[in-house]
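Fold this: peroxidase
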Amino acid sequence: MASCSTSFSLMAILLVLVLLMGSSSAQLSTDFYSKTCPKVLRTVKSVVESAVSKEKRMGASLLRLHFHDCFVNLGGLSWDVKLGRRDSKTASLSDANSGVLPPGTSSLSNLINRFQAKGLSTKDMVALSGSHTIGQARCVIFRTRVHNETDIDASFAMTRQESCPLTPGSGDDNLAPLDLQTPTAFDNNYYKNVISLKGLLHSDQQLYSGGSTNSLVESYSKDSKTFNSDFAAAMVKMGDISPLTGSSGEIRKNCRKVNS
């Protein structure tokens, strides 16, 4: 474990890893640290709330971290988090970018297939896509959509084009919120945006493109309780994807690299 002199940023990352991924030779459980570290959840909650209050994008970053870990290395809504998950002993940028975690350019069929390959249903996929209710995306990711695609609200496209020129290399790192209406609040407005043809990413709009997921999008746009319930269930299910426990993994001293 890190010493008391560890910097705030490193401590926050370590604590978040404990919360979202969680060590054991057995299976994950919600009371894994009840005896060895009974105050861990309160400590993590305090640190995360502080981090998010200082940088709103942190919430989205933590969700992204959870998606990445479960797919690649096997104030709002809440659910019981299973603890005991360790970090991988290897790290691969190529694996992370291999398409195992669907990119923003994915078609509906690719989204469904990639999630099914990890044991997640189409409903899980649509619910988890709702994580785009917070966070931002770089121009280089949505440039083609706002300039070339037709299933997009014209006014919305023009607004995004202003900070994301068509020419590659120009404004590549400029950011835009994934949720047009409430970019820092976890709610169901993401689905309302998609229905209005205001999905920022190609993969977002694919959820409402006349295919099999239209009805789910409509349901979540009208019923936030159903969305919250399905999202929480899908997050727990995703957390159970091939967890590393005991000697199969490690608790990293620096989340950016494996322990030496």
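The chain is about 45% helix and 0% strand. Confidence is low (pLDDT under 50) at residues 1-26, 66-73.
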